[in-house]
Design brief:
The structure is a single chain. With 498 residues, this protein is an alpha/beta fold. The chain has a domain of 166 residues: Nucleotidyltransferase, domain 5 (2-Layer Sandwich). Helix content is 46%, strand content 17%. The strands form three sheets. A six-stranded mixed beta sheet has the order 1-11-10-9-12-13, with helices on both faces. A hairpin with a 2-residue loop joins β6 and β7. The longest helix has 45 residues. The structure holds beta-D-glucopyranose. One of its GO terms (biological process) is hexose metabolic process. GO terms for molecular function: ATP binding; D-glucose binding; hexokinase activity. Pathway: Carbohydrate degradation; glycolysis; D-glyceraldehyde 3-phosphate and glycerone phosphate from D-glucose: step 1/4; Carbohydrate metabolism; hexose metabolism.
Length: 498
């Protein structure tokens, strides 16, 4: 071999050695990056862990806070608000009634016709529209004028033959925010939640604002009740099944209400109701306990929200926030590793990942996880390998599993407070006869998160059985109430007339 050929061969060996070295180096680097991402996932899983022992601590904390909130004004982060609802619709109601519901993402208007028998409930003309985002930080006047205008359009569409023509229309205003009531039809806004920010509205009477806007438009409508969405759901639940004592909403926000004995509402001594009980709006979104498994993502989300240090429980379990927790985890991963390609600026946009996208990714059953690929692409993350898409599904699972399980602990806490969790105050084992005395208890549940996100629902229901045990769970029935908040509020107005 000539000298040139030897030099050429040596150079070729050198080149291939360095190519191999570069490739090995890259592989090592990419393995290290993958390991970093897997480490983040592991930390997330550990921080979100909710073994049944921890859930039981949350159950106890919820029951304790409920007592404290009932004992004195400001005694707990749970406001335990009086609703002045002490009779729930029982099925004998008659007539035509309306509901206007301002929720977190949608507003709804509907009309119900009642024939005096439980089976005769005719829900007519349900309209459901997204709340225009500019209204959320406008002025109270703009907001209420918009609602009155929407109501006017709804009424204009009613046929001439509608039996409510010529009669003053009775309306329930389902208002999904915390209100301090002075009667069933009046109350002032305590604070906004779920991203609404109309500060001059705080402290104003909500029903009065709506009534004023209706009057200005010359509408012959009477705002007969101001109803929290949970109370609406409870009303519909009770209308169908008088064993309903608790209602919970899992939607954009989250909250619960339940029927309480008036003598247990110590902060309002002397409160007399003919039924001896009153529905209490817990505003459980603001519940807090050191037993809640909180991550650095929750802390950042809270700090950057429009209501920091507020609604801590809601921020772990409600629809507005689950997507944003998942987004924060993905962003963190994309910052420490390039497995998502170059970090997309969209991943830094708060709330850009909605919870319905999380549910679509989590429940993606295509073999190549095409839904996940599509949603990531919308976030500016394209062409990620299957193993990265699987990782994203896992993140959704961890965040939603924690939410579902904590939601179950919240419900079990209420059952404990009202003595329906099977413990009956007895710490030791229970006899068979005691078991037989366990009352059937219905929990009415409403809200898009619960209705549309199967995995959330399943995790919640599974954890409830885990907490209560198989035997007691047989007495606890969780019932879905589609549009329950709005329909139930209209039923409540009907029950006031009869
Ligand atoms: C509000 C509650 C409401 C819940 C569900 C929360 O943000 O404070 O009043 O019931 O969302 O809509």
């Amino acid at each position: 071999m000539g000298k040139v050929a030897v030099a050429f061969a040596a150079a070729a060996v050198l080149v291939s050695c360095s190519v191999a070295a570069v490739m090995v180096g890259r592989r090592i680097k990419s393995r290290a990056k993958w390991r970093a991402v897997v480490e983040i996932l592991k930390e997330l899983e550990e921080a979100c862990d909710t073994p049944v022992g921890r859930l039981r601590q949350v159950v106890d904390a919820m029951a304790v806070e409920m007592h404290a909130g009932l004992a004195s004004e400001g005694g707990s982060k749970l406001k335990m608000l009086l609703t002045f609802v002490h009779h729930l619709p029982n099925g004998t109601e008659k007539g035509t009634y309306y509901a206007l519901h301002l929720g977190g993402t949608y507003f709804r208007i509907l009309r119900v016709h009642l024939g005096g028998e439980r089976s005769y409930l005719d829900v007519q003309d349900v309209e459901r529209h997204p709340i225009p985002s500019h209204l959320m930080d406008s002025t109270s006047e703009v907001l209420f004028n918009f609602l009155a205008f929407s109501m006017e359009r709804f009424i204009e569409k009613e046929g001439k033959e509608s039996n409510s023509q010529g009669v003053k229309r009775e309306l329930a205003f389902t208002f999904s925010f915390p209100v301090k009531h002075s009667s069933i039809s009046s109350g002032v806004l305590i604070k906004w939640t779920k991203g609404f920010e109309i500060s001059e509205m705080v402290g104003k009477d909500v029903a009065e604002c709506l009534q004023g806007a209706m009057n200005r438009r010359g509408l012959d409508i009477h705002v007969a009740a101001l109803v929290n969405d949970t109370v609406g759901a409870l009303s519909l639940g009770y209308y169908h099944d008088p064993d309903t004592v608790v209602a919970v909403v899992f939607g954009t926000g989250s909250n619960a209400c339940y029927l309480e004995r008036t003598d247990a509402i110590i902060k309002s001594q002397g409160l007399l109701t003919t039924s001896g009980s009153m529905v209490v709006n817990m505003e459980w979104g603001n519940f807090w306990s050191s037993h809640l498994p909180r991550t650095s993502y929750d802390i950042d989300l809270d700090a950057e929200s429009s209501n920091p240090n507020d609604m801590g429980f809601e921020k772990m379990i409600a629809g507005l926030y689950l997507g944003d927790i998942v987004r924060r985890v993905i962003r963190h991963m994309s910052q420490v590793s390039d497995i998502f390609g170059p970090t997309s600026s969209m991943l830094s946009e708060p709330y850009v990942l909605r919870t319905n996208s999380v549910s679509a990714m989590h429940e993606d059953d295509t073999p190549e996880l095409q839904q996940v690929a599509r949603i990531l692409k919308d976030l500016g993350v394209s062409d990620v390998p299957l193993k990265v898409r699987k990782l994203v599904v896992k993140i959704c699972d961890v965040v939603t599993r924690r939410a579902g399980r904590l939601a179950a602990a919240g419900i079990a806490g209420i059952l404990k407070k009202v003595g329906r969790d099977g413990s009956g105050g007895i710490t030791s084992g229970r006899s068979r006869s005691e078991m037989r005395m366990q009352k059937r208890t219905v929990v009415a549940v409403e809200g898009g998160l619960y209705m549309n996100y199967t995995m959330f629902r399943e995790y919640m229901e599974e954890a409830l059985v885990e907490i209560l045990g198989e035997e007691v769970s047989q007495y606890v029935v969780v019932k879905a109430m589609e549009d329950g908040s709005s329909i139930g509020s209209a039923l409540l107005v009907a029950s006031l007339q009869s």
